[in-house]
């Protein structure tokens, strides 16, 4: 394969693989914010807030209040983490006038990894609600993102198709030999 062909594939490949780095990272080190009893404010893209390792039992629940700052550029939060055993349901609820309003995300999670995504609106407050379904421990992190990873993947794939289609048009139309 010539260097020219490789350079044509480099940009689309980079655009498609770039957002996968965050998805593979799992829990985000280092933790910028601790999610605890005090309300937490996410004010920049890329910030990570963590519950730390917590214990939970059947029918018990933990709540972590947080908000997204105005003009932060944050449009969503990635939920990631891990648990020991089949123990938690994770809900993200929007707070309005001190009460629960809309359910933003709900993850009923089996053993092992915790993962999900929900859209967030700047200037709004939320609660991460962790409900125990068994006995064990969990560690959940929220990472502030500007756009959902799916949008980046779709955009990268679309850009790749445009580049490939454009290169095909530059070479001229494809000619098909028809036998008589």
Q: Can you walk through the features of this model?
A:
This protein is 24% helix and 40% strand. The protein is an alpha+beta fold and 180 residues long. Strands 1, 3, 4, 6, 9 and 11 form a 6-stranded mixed β-sheet that branches. Strands 2-5-10-7-8 form a 5-stranded mixed β-sheet, with no helix packed on it. Strand 7 (88-96) and strand 8 (99-108) form a beta hairpin.
Task: Describe the structure concisely for a colleague.
The protein has helices spanning 3-17, 20-25, 149-170, and strands spanning 33-34, 40-42, 48-50, 54-56, 61-68, 76-83, 88-96, 99-108, 112-119, 125-132, 136-145.
SSE layout and pairing:
Elements: H1 3-17, H2 20-25, E1 33-34, E2 40-42, E3 48-50, E4 54-56, E5 61-68, E6 76-83, E7 88-96, E8 99-108, E9 112-119, E10 125-132, E11 136-145, H3 149-170
Parallel strand pairs: 1-3, 2-5
Antiparallel strand pairs: 3-11, 4-11, 5-10, 6-9, 6-11, 7-8, 7-10
Shape, please? elongated
Count of β-strands: 11
CATH superfamily: GOLD domain
CATH C-level category: Mainly Beta
Distance between the termini: 35 Å
What class do helices, strands and sheet pairing give?
alpha+beta
User: Which CATH-level-2 architecture?
Assistant: Sandwich
Strand content: 35-45%
Integer count of domains: 1
Number of helices: 3
User: Stretches where pLDDT falls below 50 for ≥5 residues?
Assistant: 9-26
| Rg, Å, rounded | 22 Å
Helical content (DSSP H or I, runs of 4+)? 10-25%
What is the averaged pLDDT score? 74
Named CATH topology: Jelly Rolls
Largest sheet, strands/sense/barrel = 6 strands, mixed
The secondary-structure element order is HHEEEEEEEEEEEH
């Amino acid at each position: 394969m010539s260097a020219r062909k490789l350079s044509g594939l480099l940009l689309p490949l980079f655009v498609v693989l770039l957002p996968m780095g965050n998805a593979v990272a799992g829990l985000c080190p280092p933790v910028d914010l601790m999610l605890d009893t005090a309300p937490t404010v996410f004010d920049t893209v890329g910030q990570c807030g963590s519950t730390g390792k917590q214990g939970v039992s059947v029918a018990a629940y933990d709540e972590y209040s947080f908000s997204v700052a105005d003009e932060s550029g944050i449009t969503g939060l990635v939920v990631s983490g891990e648990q020991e055993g089949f123990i938690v349901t994770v809900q993200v609820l929007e707070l309005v006038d001190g009460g629960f309003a809309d359910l933003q995300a709900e993850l009923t999670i089996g053993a092992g990894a915790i993962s999900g995504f929900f859209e967030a609106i700047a200037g709004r407050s939320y609660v991460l609600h962790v409900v125990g379904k068994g006995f064990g421990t969990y560690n959940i992190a929220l990472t502030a993102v500007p756009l959902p990873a799916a949008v980046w993947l779709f955009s990268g794939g679309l850009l790749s198709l445009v580049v490939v289609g454009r290169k095909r048009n530059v070479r001229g139309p494809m000619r098909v030999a028809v036998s008589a």
